[in-house]
Design goal:
Layout lengths: L2 H14 L2 H11 L15 H15 L3 H19 L11 H19 L7 E8 L2 E7 L5 H15 L3 E7 L8 E7 L2
Antiparallel strand pairs: 1-2, 2-4, 3-4
Bound molecules: protoporphyrin IX containing FE.
Amino acid sequence: MHGVFFHFLKEYMQEKYGGKESWDSLLLANGYAYKVYFTIKEYPDEEFNALINMASRLLDIPSDHLIRDYGEFMVPHMLVFYATYLKDKSWRSLELIENVGTSIHHTVKRRNPDTRPPEMITERISRDQIVLRYRSERKLCVLLSGMIHGVGNHFGEHLEIREHDCMLNGASECRFEIWRRT
Ligand code: HEM
């Protein structure tokens, strides 16, 4: 998992759950007295999962809730961090999600072959509705659903999501219907 997801997890923990100590105790509980995650490096997926599961245990919050909330939190930060990828100023929430699948994640992979961004295939149903199919061996569809809401927040649009098929229930991909309600 790319360092950017760890970097913003630190910001999330610090901002939402009590400053520097919350992140430090999370690291400590995972066996690190000190650790810096770099936003240009890849780290084992298990390390990300371990941090989420430990945070869930320490904070007594279900891990699904935590990871979805984290996804929603991190997107606006991520879009500032990766501002150079947002070429078209006319994009709003659904247009950005479409472009992540058709272009942005492919560009990320081309520039850095070590990364493994998920496949996101979209179909435009109407001006305010798309279908999104997500495939990743990491099966992070809960994170993705939070990220979709984060995209909506970033653009001041309310997005409603319904998940139909889910890899966590054995499907080969997750399929989301997404409506723009504003
Ligand atoms: C400028 C925009 C974006 C850039 C540059 C970008 C880049 C990346 C990168 C570098 C990763 C890490 C890959 C790895 O760990 O090896 C990633 C993962 C991911 N991205 Fe994006 N991303 C962008 C926007 C989005 C948006 C808007 C969504 C969803 C609405 C999204 C969904 C995801 C998900 C769910 C992952 C987690 C990894 C997985 O599911 O396997 N991304 N992205």
